[in-house]
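G., before I forget:
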Amino acid sequence: MKIRLENVVKTFETFRAVKDVSLDIESGELVALLGPSGSGKTTILRMVAGLEYSDGGHIYFGDQDATDIPVRDRGVGFVFQHYALFPHMTVADNIAFGMKVSKVKRDKAAIDARVTDLLRLVRLEGLGDRFAAQISGGQRQRVALARALAVDPKVLLLDEPFGALDANVRRDLRRWLREIHSELGITTLFVTHDQEEALDLADRVVILKDGRIVQQGTPQEVCRDPQSAFVMKFLGDANMIAAEVRDGRAYTGDVSVDAVGVADGKAELYARPADLDWSEQGPGIAATISRVLDRPDGRRVLAATGAGEALEFDVEPERQVRAGEAGFVTLRRAKVFAA
Amino acid sequence: MRRRNVLPGLPLSLGVTLFYVGLIVVLPLAALVIKAASLGPADYWQIISSPRAVASYRVTVLSALGATVFNLFFGLALAWVLTRYRFPGRRIVDAMVDLPFALPTAVAGIALTALFANNGWFGSILGEFGIKVAYTQLGIMIAMCFTSIPFVVRTVQPVLEDLDPALEEAAQSLGGSDWEIFRKVILPLLTPALMAGVSLSFARSLGEFGAIIFIAGNQPMSTEITALLIFIRLEEYDYQAAAAIASVLLITAFVMLAITNWLQARALRYTVKG
Amino acid sequence: MSNHPSRRKPPRVGDNPLFRRTLIGIVLVIGFFMVLAPLVIIAVEAFAKGWQVYRDTIIHPDTLHAVGLTVLAALIAVPLNTAFGIAAAWAITKFDFWGKRFLLVVIEIPFSVSPIVAGVAYLFVYGLQGLFGPLLDAWDIKILFAIPGIIIASMFVTASFVARELIPLMQAQGRDLEEAATSLGASGFRTFLSVTLPNVKWALLYGVILCNARVMGEFGAVSVVSGNIRGQTNTLPLHIELLYHDYQAAGAFASASILALLAVFTIIAKVLLERQGAGRVRKTANPAEKTS
């Protein structure tokens, strides 16, 4: 099922949560809505579900205008942030609930069979008789997903699906959700504030800020070509160095990088820690190391330029560096945005 | 702007609520206010400031104050003992705290009267010391204490139970004595709940009727509470006077309700959200 | 007093043994005088003139009639207040609307207004000198000084009881479960019955029991509107007063013992329900929110 949002607006009291958002989600696509808290991502998800009504614009499911269809008739599967499992029902009863209340009558055997299938799909065979309080967080998450899938939704919507889980459980479930998606091919939209999660899982990432879409594209597109300083910073660690643009090149100290399309004048230069190189001799941006952090996959160096700008970069694990050392930083790659 | 609700049932549930509240609560109170207002300011003032009415306010308010002060200390002690200590019979005592809520006021009234009458179990002992309870203001106070003690205990108890032990431990690690920790850490955290409970207790005492009329002497000017005066005016078919004095109690109840709500909101002040 | 090392805990504030024992002692003594003694004296006084007098009082037609009327009032007022409490809790906790805070305060009013004031207020609605009195009189409908008046006055004083128990709990539980059920296609009624109700049933029952106890024991409001006609409009509490002022103390206490028994049952029911988690909003109302 293809989903289209057309100029959708949502206002809470005096605060505009979502401002004129248009978005197309192709059938079978797995899309992440990524943004900091307050960016409107959950509100958009809830509007797609029908758990919130938009104040303007339209939402289409295929060719059908779904804007005014109430949630119970919209045919979406929604996985709540804290799962919202019915605490007084067993896992199996939770999963069966949607089928039991459905207008399409199913007999008990059919429901039981489907519950068994779903339990197998989410790898919870044998836990059907447990209550929500008796299973782990990761298991609850999978029950919530099975419950949402039980009614054969046209669209699967997940609100911060892994937000309440430990880091390692989170990584496993992420891979697993991707597998389920490939298996079922259901159009899926999920909300997260964790860029790693969005990039790992989604076919396409939609980045939001203050109720507007600031950039969207495949993980490759948004990572390699961030269109704004916000996206650059939000997707990962970034160094900011003040620079001056002249004729399509940005200059800072002895260093210059390509800045095609950026107007002449003051600019901000952004570079990932991995794109900075450290050497004892110039040329480069003069800096002094203030601290060295050892990590399993390398050494992270914190340094400060002569102008007092903080820099972070990575060096090989074998490289001997020490706090107090002076040297020079060169740039392998950088993005420049007008200040 | 389209404003619709996602969950079903608002028209039905809100309709039922408004209809019921309107018919059962708002309509009679409005009728009372209309009746009282029909008196005109001069007559109204004359009735509510008549010496007998003023004497009844004094008896009611002073007794309620006395009862509330007692309940402040005893209620706090009771809540403390029930949450902090384990002793045989604690659960029974905990359950018995609700007896004044569950026991009909008229039943409480005759029971207290029997206990504190001059020939009663307690009355005869107290009489030896020259203390008269039944048919005096002291009796009114005791009836008020009885009916309102659960308010203080049940408001303070949950807060005391949820008090983070780490706060006390922190204070202990900083070298505070028990009394200092109680005064400076525990009591301030309990105060909002304690005040909310106390104001509920005071409000209840102001309006109490059944438990009091048996034990009070009901003598005009000395042991006649305001609620009883209203009742007497009704029996004399002086409906306007009844309405006027009842409106005073009603306004007091509103003021107490506002104070209590405000205090209860403050009581949640230290609760970390989320 | 275990000496097992692993069970020893450092003392908390107020754990000084002397202080602890003194405080428990004081509380128990005052508690006994204030709370337990009234219960004991009812039993003692009820049987003061022997079993025969007790029995005669209980089976006296006036007493039985008063019991019947009290039960009738409860049978009507309690279900209506329960329906109201559920509707109010649903409207207030599942929706946002203008004036909600004000509505909450209005629902609290009956809890804080003196029952005498409530009785008087009803007089000015349905009494002869009230708003609808003349109209009702013309149609020959009797509400005041008759059974309907008693029932309506009881409804006023207990109107808040069920709502007061449900609202904080349903507020704490949020709307997620209902939204989940609705997103799975359940109707509103179905959502309430199979998702909301099972999670609030103990609190609801608790509210119903408190409401019932108060309806059966209500004195002030009912005494204003009843007219105290023996054998006709006397509820049990009014009957007690009548006997008491008739200098039939043993009879009054015998009748009171019925209500005292009701109070004891109410407390037992309350304790049992609290074990099920009613009466107190737990911090994590939704166990699914506890991550393990």
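Chain C touches chain B through 105 residues (CB under 8 Å). Residues 284 and 290 of chain C are 7 Å apart (CA to CA).

More on Monday.
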